[in-house]
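#structure-requests
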Amino acid sequence: MIAQDLGVELALAAFRRLMASLQVARTQRGADPWSDCPMTMPQLRALSLIVAAPRGLSSRELAASLGVGASAVTPMVDRLVEHGFVLRHEDPHDRRIARLTATESGSAMLERMIAGKGDVLREALGHLSPEQLQQVTAALDVLSASLSTAKDA
């Protein structure tokens, strides 16, 4: 294994440790947003994709993004609509296509799920020195830039 591959594997292992630590901390604090989430993981993933699409997604686009067939997406979206997290509306350019957009409630639910980790993470960051905070911030900025570069490529 070359040094770059080893570095990538070490970084991924550190990330997995961080995520496991966050889960333990959230559970210990009784701050697990999953305990009151009315969605399954696939529904939450679908909602996150819909929230991220500024003009909405068609069911076909959602199915392709999830790597499932259109028949699997329909009942999943039905549940999201029933919970008031997603709206179906006619595509303005092609009335045969129903676009899926997130409601304020759906966006808020997704934000609450993300913030569940953020509260614990905020507390942990509060224990770091200014120098350590600067290192963490720089590392996250580098990772963000790398993701943006990869997306644009």
